[in-house]
Amino acid sequence: xxxxxxxxxxxxxxxxxxxxxxxxxxxxxxxxxxxxxxxxxxxxxxxxxxxxxxxxxxxxxxxxxxxxxxxxxxxxxxxxxxxxxxxxxxxxxxxxxxxxxxxxxxxxxxxxxxxxxxxxxxxxxxxxxxxxxxxxxxxxxxxxxxxxxxxxxxxxxxxxxxxxxxxxxxxxxxxxxxxxxxxxxxxxxxxxxxxxxxxxxxxxxxxxxxxxxxxxxxxxxxxxxxxxxxxxxxxxxxxxxxxxxxxxxxxxxxxxxxxxxxxxxxxxxxxxxxxxxxxxxxxxxxxxxxxxxxxxxxxxxxxxxxxxxxxxxxxxxxxxxxxxxxxxxxxxxxxxxxxxxxx
Amino acid sequence: xxxxxxxxxxxxxxxxxxxxxxxxxxxxxxxxxxxxxxxxxxxxxxxxxxxxxxxxxxxxxxxxxxxxxxxxxxxxxxxxxxxxxxxxxxxxxxxxxxxxxxxxxxxxxxxxxxxxxxxxxxxxxxxxxxxxxxxxxxxxxxxxxxxxxxxxxxxxxxxxxxxxxxxxxxxxxxxxxxxxxxxxxxxxxxxxxxxxxxxxxxxxxxxxxxxxxxxxxxxxxxxxxxxxxxxxxxxxxxxxxxxxxxxxxxxxxxxxxxxxxxxxxxxxxxxxxxxxxxxxxxxxxxxxxxxxxxxxxxxxxxxxxxxxxxxxxxxxxxxxxxxxxxxxxxxxxxxxxxxxxxx
DNA sequence: CTGTTAGCGCATTCAG
DNA sequence: CTGAATGCGCTAACAG
Lengths: 343, 343
Hints:
2 copies of one chain form a homodimer.
Chain A lengths: L16 H8 L3 H9 L6 H14 L5 H8 L4 E6 L8 H13 L3 E6 L4 H12 L5 E5 L5 H10 L3 E4 L9 E4 L2 H14 L5 E6 L2 H16 L6 E5 L5 H13 L5 E4 L2 H13 L9 E3 L5 H6 L5 E3 L2 H17 L10 E4 L3 E3 L5
Parallel strand pairs in A: 1-2, 1-3, 3-4, 4-5, 5-11, 6-7, 6-8, 8-9
Antiparallel strand pairs in A: 10-12
The structure holds a DNA duplex (16 and 16 nucleotides).
C-alpha cells in the first residue's frame, strides 16, 4: 500500500496492539493484559499503557480478540418483529443488562417465519455468539440441530415447553387461554367471540380458550383470524365481522392492540363497554389501560423475562464453557388476569 | 451425560474450512471461493464443496473471515430507546433491507445519553462494522472523532444538520416547530400550551414552535416539560398542570403518546376535543389516529428513513472502500402536518 | 479455474 | 509481574 504517495489524509490505517506497545515501551502482550486483566499488571505499567492507548486512539479489534480467545462477547436475539412490539420491554431489559456486563447484542428479525429463523440462526452462529435468545419454542429441526451443535447457552423466551433446547423462560399460552375461559365463564359469560391475528402464540391462546369453553359446554364460539400484524384497523374489521353474524356478549382478543380496535369500533357503534359488549385483551398495553378503563386483559411481565434471560446467560458465561451440559432450566414467569370491568 | 466417560459427547469442536476441504478433496481456498464467490468456481467442484459442507455441518467463522478480509458484513444501529418507539418503523425497514443483502445488525441503546453513546460507539467500533447508523446529529467530540477515524460510512438519521459527519437522513425539528406554529396561528389559535418530554429532539421542536409564536406576537405560551419517557400518564399529568394555570385553547405535544394522555385527561374532564380544547401531537401513531379522529399531528415517514439509510449504506459498500471520501450527503425526508380537526 | 504462501490482530500458553 | 512464541480460521495476492 502506498505509504505517502498522494498523501491521502490521516487515514491512520488501524492502530494495533503492537503500535500501542511500541509507544508505551512494553511488549504487546502487556498491553493486552493491561486492557483485559488490569489486576495482573503493575499500576505504573498500566498507566503507561493507558496513556499510549489515548495517544494512539487505539480501538481493540474484537474480531481478532474473539478469534484468538473464542469468546465473542456477543449475544444474539431473535424476535418475530420489533414494530408494535410486546417484546419491547423484554428487549430493553435484556440489552440493558447485557450491555452493563460488557456484552453486545446482535438483533435478528424473523417475521414469524420458521425458515427465516433458520437462515438467521445459521448466519448468526457464524459470528460465534457466546449465547443466543430466541422468542418462542417452535423451531425447525435444522435450527435446533445447529443450536445444539453450537454448544452455547440458548434461551427460549415468551413461551414454555417440556423440552427446551436448553433454558426456557416464559409462560404457557395454553394456560392463558384456559384460565381466561374459566375466569369469564365463572363471571357468567356464555356467548363468546374470539379475535386473533395469525401469529402462532396468539392462535394457541385463542384455540386453548375455545377448547376450554367447549369442555364447559360452550360450543358456539365465533372465531375470526386476521392477517398479522395486529393493528387497530384489524381489530375494527374483525369486530365488524363478528358483530354482523350473531353479536357475542364478549370479545376475547389475541392482543391489546386488537382489543383497542374492538373498543374503537364499539365506540363508533355507540356500544357501551362492558355493558353492551365486554372486551378482553392480552399484553396489558399501558396505553390501552389508561384510555379504556373498562378493558380487561392478561398481564405478562416482559421486563422480567428479559432480566431472567440476561441473568441466565451471564451466569453461564461466568461458569465458563461447561461443555455440552444443557441444564434444561425452565422458568415459569406466569401471567395475571386483570379484570377491569366495574361489575 | 458423558457417554464414553472422558470422551465428552460429540462436541464436534468446530468444523473448519480445512475439514471441509479435506472431505471435498480440494484446497481450503477453493472451499472459501465456492462459498463466497461461486462464479469463480467450476460447477462440479462447487457441488463437491457444497456436499462436503452439508456432510460436515460446517458453519463459516465470520470472525476469522472478517479479520482476514477486513469486511465484517455488520452494520451497527444506535438508538435512544426501542420501547415506545417511533423508531420502530425505521429499524424494521433498515434491518429488513440489510438482512436481505447479507448484512447483520448490531443494536445499541443509548438511552438519550451522549456519554452512553460514546461508550457504545467505542465498543461497537471494536467489532469493525462496515457501517453505522446513529439516531440524531448531536454527539460528543470524542464520538465524532472516533467515527471519522473509523473511516466507514456513517448515517445520521431522524434529524438534519448542516455539518453531517458523513450522510444525514431526516428532517428539521426546528422546521417542524416553526411550521406547526404558523399553521395553527393561521387557523386562528392564539392561546397555546406546550407539553414535551425531556428528549432533545422533542424539546427542539417545542422551543422552535414557541420561538415562532413569539415572532408572531404570541408570548404567553405555557411550557411544561415531563421527564422521559413519554407515557400516557405523563401526558395526563402535564395536562393537569397546564389546565390548572390558565387553560390554553390548544395543547401542542412533543409526541403522540403524550397527546393521547392529553386526550384521555380531557375526556375525563368532559372537555370536548377540538371544541373546548384542541390537541396537536407528533409522530402519527396509528393507534392515536384511529381512536381519536380529532387528534391533529405531524406525520414523519420512519420507514422511508430506514430504507434510505439502508440504501445509502449498501451503495457505499458496493463502491468499495473509497478511502476517507465523505460525500456529506443530506437527505430531507420532510414531514407533513395532518390536520384532523373537523373545522 | 485452482492451489500456495502469508498474514489479519489478538490471546493462550508457557518461560523468565 | 512481564515477555516470546504460536496459532485461532480465514482470505488476498499471487502462481500455476
